Amino acid sequence: MQKDLIYLFTHSLGGKVQVFKEIGLTVPPIEDEFFTDTANAISTMIKEAFPDAEIIEFSLESLMTCVEQEIEKMRKTLGDNCMVITPCTELTGNKTQIIETNRIADFRGDNVGTGPRAGHDSIDNQIQKIVLNVRGHKTLFADDGSFSGDTTVNQILDFRKYNHEFDAIVLGVATDKAIEEIKKVFSGPILICQKIEGELFEWIVEHDYWPWIPGSGRPIGNLNELTNLASVTELDGMTFTIPYGLHKESLSKFASIEHEMIAERIIGFCFEKSIELFEKIEKLNNDIITFDKLNNKKCAISVPVIIGQEPKPIDPNTRIIDHIKEMSKII
Question: What value, to the nearest 5°, has the Cα angle with vertex 330 and ends 325 and 331?
Answer without folding.
Answer: 100
